[in-house]
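ok trying again, last paste got cut off:
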Amino acid sequence: MARPIMIQGTMSNAGKSILAGGLCRVLKQDGYRVAPFKSQNMALNSFITKEGLEMGRAQVMQAEAAGIEPQAAMNPILLKPTNDTGSQVILNGEVQGIMSAREYYRHKKEYIPVIQKAYEQLDRQFDIIVIEGAGSPAEINLKSEDIVNMGMAELVDAPVLLAGDIDRGGVFAQIVGTIELLEEKERARIKGTIINKFRGDKEILRPGLEMLEERTKIPVCGVVPYFYLDIDDEDSLSERFERKEKIGLVDIAVIRLPRISNFTDLMPLESMEEVNVRYVSSPGAFGNPDAVIIPGSKNTMEDLRWMRQSGLEGKILRHAADGKLVFGICGGYQMMGEEIQDPHHVEAGGTIRGMGLLPVKTVFAGKKTRTRVSGNFCSMEGVLKPLSKVQLEGYEIHMGVTEHTKKVCPAVSLKEETGAGGQKTDGAVKGNCFGCYIHGIFEHPEAAKGFVCVLLGQKGYDSKQISLPDWNAHKEEQYNKLADIIRENLDMDMIYSVIRKGNKML
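nice, full thing came through this time. structure:
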């Protein structure tokens, strides 16, 4: 039987995911078999497991920090918003369909057995389970149907650490107000509070900490400083989108689609000193990049319309006409084609003209493709020639079936790692335009290096003189730095006592 500990927050984006990931790495370093768990996650960043099941990237990050293979049981319910009022519902890695918020709310309690079964699967394998909540436990309108905060804590009798974000201001009101709005039995579960994202001198904060402990009768178990590491973010609140540009040898503009998904695909490129990655949401910010990347989207047709209406499509077409690289991933690949059809109303239905950069046509189907893949880029000519035969790996998550409308060079040659493990080609290349379905395509060090070398070569730089990091080694370094921050700023003796005693009074 695993011992649980839960991280809840006073609000969304209080830093729960990163704190849970850091705790996973500390516990792993201390010799424990540890796993992450989040009963319900709402995010557009998802991942495909070795079994071909879909789960949220935040729990993948936490599993990596714990040094274990991600399992769909770590995130039994994943909600992927399709619009402001509805989401695609994924249970245990399998798509159940699209539900409105009201419909899902009516069915929430029916999913408790799904959550219990997933948790029990991990319970049999690990020593400690680090559970992450969602949003705030004090959402009065949601409490009666809660399955992710105090409802989850009660389900597995987990002690709770409550984190507040001081960077936004009002952290003492956040924490005190959250605790005051809880029922007595819920308040009793909170064994410690955490002040997160602090900038400044902790001594100046001390009177506030003493007042907080006196007011809540709950110890403060740490003040975590504001920091930045190259670690997956939970959702599109990611500060990465707003980060100031750095000066690099090459400049990449990523189109910040309204329903952007799996923007974590670009993190390996962002980690390179030689590369400036900018997220662009208006023609005025487009500039004169060396390459444009159109990422994935949860609503490809609507995002294509937005790109067209905003004027960004015209910018991209002129960029392509100048012979510069346009690289589409998943939904971005579909947009670059000639046409997208939605006869089964997977999205809004109907047909929309594509950008016409690649001779392909996409038809949305009812069944989602979910598979891990490995292979290499196909042989290519022209600007993309340096990528020929370079190794890659990643995963596919898409509802569309894309076919070539005329003879064209495929982009990649792949082996499916999930299911029967067949061979196939994917994507299309036409001159300086490239598209494929592979998420995580830059995580293989050779693929990231090859892509950047294409851009460096175009600008006359000798890529052999430039050292490009191994993304996997870089991630390990980041997780270890995160663990150092956790150890230095949280009272780990107190946290181990909480884990040991569980929901008993300390």
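cool. The CA atoms of residues 45 and 262 lie 4 Å apart. The chain is about 30% helix and 30% strand.
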